[in-house]
Amino acid sequence: MKTIYLSLIALFLATFTVTAQDFSYGVIGGVNFSKIDNLGGDGFENNRLGFHIGGVAELAFAEKWSYEGSLLYSVEGEEFDNLLGSTTDVKLQYINVPLQFKYYAYKNFSIHFGPQIGFLLKGEQSIGDGDAVEIENTVNTNFAGTAGFGYDLKEYNLYFKGTFTYGFSDIIDNETDGVNRSQLPGTVHLSVGYKF
User: Fold this and answer.
1) Which of 34, 55, 139, 167 is least surrounded by Cβ atoms within 10 Å, i.e. has the fewest?
2) Cα–Cα distance between 34 and 95 in angstroms, integer?
3) Number of domain units in the chain
4) Has residue 77 been placed in a domain?
């Protein structure tokens, strides 16, 4: 799986450096609603509210197709009620690099999809009003798939984007305790961007 993702990333970057025609770049930011499978909460109602911010670049390679790559700082995780009657807050801080194919289906409306690689900067959790402590045995690199839609408001250099990301690798190396819980992250990103 990692080989496939790395090959797609290499192809993306190689094509990206061939030409600067129809190239644009800008900034992007927004809110995250994230959840981790089999961690503690039930259903997406136990999501954690976070945010993302960073830079984005787009390169057209056909009439309706383009590549889009981003470099994002993103706060994700999960928040759920525990057995002690208080709230457990799991906070994960990532540098995410989504590399997406973008198809303009109708005028300024687009659909995007592609892989993402994430690098964990810090993972911590807190219970109730207690201090945050570092989570042990976290996996530092996360591979994920992304898909969503967007709309370009070109007259104002603005664009809006909604993306769902689902991880293919556990966030915690839990096989050491003999249990594979498949703690896979899922995040909904709602973004607003500005292109220069």
Assistant:
1) 55
2) 15
3) 1
4) yes
Residue 18: inside a domain: no
Closest to 169 (Cα-Cα) out of 133, 140, 146:
140
Number of other CB atoms surrounding residue 154 within 10 Å: 11
The CATH number of the domain where 52 resides is what?
2.40.160.20
Cα 104 from Cα 67, distance rounded (Å):
11
Structure tokens that stand for 110 in this block: 């687009």
Q: What are the φ and ψ backbone dihedral angles of 117, each rounded to 5 degrees?
A: -115, 135
Q: Which domain holds residue 53?
A: 2-12+25-195
Q: What CA–CA distances, in Å, run from 114 to 122, 131, 132, 164, 184?
A: 25, 37, 34, 11, 18
Q: Tell whether 172 is covered by a domain.
A: yes
CB 168 within 8 A of CB 16: no
Phi, psi of 10 (to 5 degrees): -65, -40
Residue 20 lies in a domain: no
With CA atoms as reference, report the closest residue to 93 among 1, 185, 160, 182.
Answer: 185
Q: What is the pTM of this model?
A: 0.82
Instruction: Supply the pLDDT for residue 28.
Output: 97
pLDDT along the chain (196 residues), means of 10: 56 52 89 84 74 95 92 92 80 95 93 96 86 83 95 93 92 61 86 94
- How many C-beta neighbours within 10 Å does residue 88 have? 21
